[in-house]
């Protein structure tokens, strides 16, 4: 299972400290930040257990940051991204 969060984390040092905190607080979880993304993405993956987004959000909040789950958006075949891909191939 993978959960993706939009965060307020801006600095690499903050991200590294939060990664350590997340790994120490949640068993069987791997986390990483993508601070180059405009949403300062936090990705959390777990193979053996369910990710608890509310607890993760509270943990980041306690450290002075905001986080929100980014919804899974699966575009339909009629979505513009598929139409543009179809045009590129033909």
Automatic annotation (TrEMBL):
Q: Which domain of life is it from?
A: Bacteria
**Which protein is depicted?**
Uncharacterized protein
- Look up and give the organism this protein is from: Fulvivirga kasyanovii
